[in-house]
Structure formats: structure tokens, C-alpha cells
Specification:
It is a single chain. By secondary structure, the protein is mostly helical. The protein has one domain. It is built from 8 helices and no strands. About 2% of the residues have low confidence.
């Protein structure tokens, strides 16, 4: 549930920001009548992503044995790679998103072009969401828990997106993206550990120091229950991880977090007026 919430909150807010930028600029240029074309493009994009998500999830859910391990390992690895790229890309290009979208709107000579702009922007974020959700899905998490977490994240993202739209440049999102960026790094570390675990089982590597459990918790809040499920979904915690999985987690998290914080401090070293990550005006 926690992983689905974090993913849909972050990705949902990015979608909300894209729509806020589009609507804000259309309003500013007295093109409010074109709102419906943005909604049409966005709606089709959401429908496409939902259908793809359901189809892929159904296909993966029907697998078992070696094939299941291979697919789950590949999905986790792909989600980790894309998520890592997305965290750094978003921070480096966020300020240019608004300008890029406004230029595309200015170049849209037909109403269908507006729908296409919205469709492409929302589809990109939606497909990322599908990949992250599939890669993070745990066998111990029920469908209802996963669905509730995902819907809750989307609802909060929609509310925040509306506040950005009505608040304009007065709404500063820098702290939100910095904090969620750090959380997503730990989440991606969990995906890296999961990928290594699945691929190890696929290859049949057993025994030995590297493949034996570093700890083995059989009871308590860190072994079962809601707290365990929350930490497992959000941070990749496991009650009985092999040493290779822990090493992968620590190496990934420490390396990527160091790069993220170092680059973040270098970009904020010069004192500047507080500004939002993106502008909707």
C-alpha cells in the first residue's frame, strides 16, 4: 500500500502539474474554450494506461516458476533504472517543463494538436506509473491494499495540483520534490534488491556466505503485520534478506543518495528568491 501511495502521489502530481501548466497558459491567452480538448487528450491517455496496466498485470499474475521469477526480476530492474533516471531528470529539467509546454501550445494550430500534447504528456507519466507499480507489487500485498494506496495517492496529487493551479507561483513545490526524491531513492534501492533476489532464485544460487540470510526475524512488528508491510513497500525492508540483497540495497542507496544530495547542494548553493519548481503562469 505504501509503495503504491508514494508512486501515484509523485507521478500523479507530475501529471497534475502538466495539466495545471496547460490550463493556466490557455487561460492567460484567452483560450479557455480549448480546455475540453486538453481533457479529451488526458482522458484517452489515462484510459490507455489503465488498459495496458490491467493487461500486463493479468499476464504477469498468471505466470509461475522460473518464468515468473524472470519477469518479476526484469520488471523490478527496469523500474529501478527508470525511477533513478526520473528522479535526476525531474530535478534538472523541472523549470523548463512549463516553457516547453507553452511553446507547444503556441505551435498548436488545431484543437486536435492540443489533445495530442496532453495525451503525450500524460501517457509518458502514466506508463512510468504502470511500470513502477508492477515492479513494486509484493506477493504479501493484497489487491485491495494496493488499490487503496494508489487511489489515495492520486486523490492527494489531484488536490495538490489544483492548489498549484489556483495558487500559481505562490505555491513552492521544491521541498515536496526534494523529499519525495529521497524517498524514491530508497524505494528504488528496494527494487534493486528485489531484482537481485529474483534473479538469484532464477539462477538457482543457494548456500554460501553471500546467499545466506543476514538476519532472520520470525516475529514482531518488523517481521509481520502492517508495519512490516509498510516498510517493505516503501523502503524495501525484508525480515529475512540474503546478504547479496542487503549489499545491493546499501551500495545503490548510498551511491545514488550521495550523488543526489551533492548535485542538489550545488544547484542551491547560490542564494535565490524562493520559486516553485514549475510555473503554471
Amino acid at each position: 500500500m505504501s509503495s503504491a501511495f508514494l508512486i501515484t502521489l509523485r507521478e500523479g502530481l507530475e501529471i497534475s502539474l502538466v495539466l495545471a501548466i496547460l490550463f493556466g497558459y490557455l487561460t492567460k491567452t484567452n483560450r479557455g474554450s480549448d480546455f475540453r480538448h486538453v481533457w479529451i487528450g488526458s482522458g484517452i491517455a489515462v484510459l490507455v494506461c489503465l488498459v495496458l496496466g490491467v493487461v500486463i498485470n493479468s499476464a504477469v499474475g498468471g505466470l509461475n516458476g522460473k518464468v515468473e521469477q524472470a519477469v518479476e526480476g526484469a520488471l523490478a530492474l527496469a523500474a529501478c533504472a527508470v525511477l533513478s533516471w526520473m528522479v535526476f531528470w525531474m530535478r534538472g529539467h523541472a523549470r523548463g517543463i512549463g516553457t516547453e509546454l507553452r511553446q507547444k501550445i503556441d505551435g498548436a494550430t488545431t484543437t486536435s494538436a492540443l489533445s495530442i500534447i496532453a495525451f503525450v504528456a500524460v501517457t509518458r507519466e502514466g506508463l512510468e506509473t504502470v511500470l513502477f507499480l508492477l515492479g513494486s507489487r509484493s506477493a504479501t500485498t493484497t489487491t485491495s491494499q494496493f488499490t487503496v494506496g494508489g487511489l489515495l495517492g492520486l486523490v492527494i496529487a489531484a488536490i495538490l495540483g489544483y492548489l498549484v493551479y489556483v495558487g500559481g507561483n505562490r505555491f513552492n513545490l521544491r521541498m515536496f520534490f526534494n523529499v519525495t526524491g529521497i524517498l524514491l531513492i530508497f524505494f528504488a534501492a528496494g527494487l534493486a534488491g528485489k531484482a537481485v533476489h529474483e534473479l538469484r532464485e532464477l539462477c538457482g544460487f543457494e548456500g554460501g556466505w553471500l546467499f545466506s540470510s543476514l538476519w532472520d526475524l520470525q516475529s514482531g512488528p518488523l517481521a509481520t503485520g502492517n508495519i512490516y508491510d509498510f516498510l517493505k513497500g516503501l523502503l524495501g525492508w525484508h525480515n529475512s534478506p540474503e546478504r547479496l540483497r542487503v549489499i545491493t540495497y546499501v551500495v545503490y542507496a548510498s551511491t545514488v543518495l550521495t550523488l543526489y544530495l551533492r548535485n542538489n547542494s550545488s544547484t542551491t548553493g547560490v542564494t535565490k528568491p524562493a520559486t516553485p519548481v514549475v510555473s503554471v503562469e
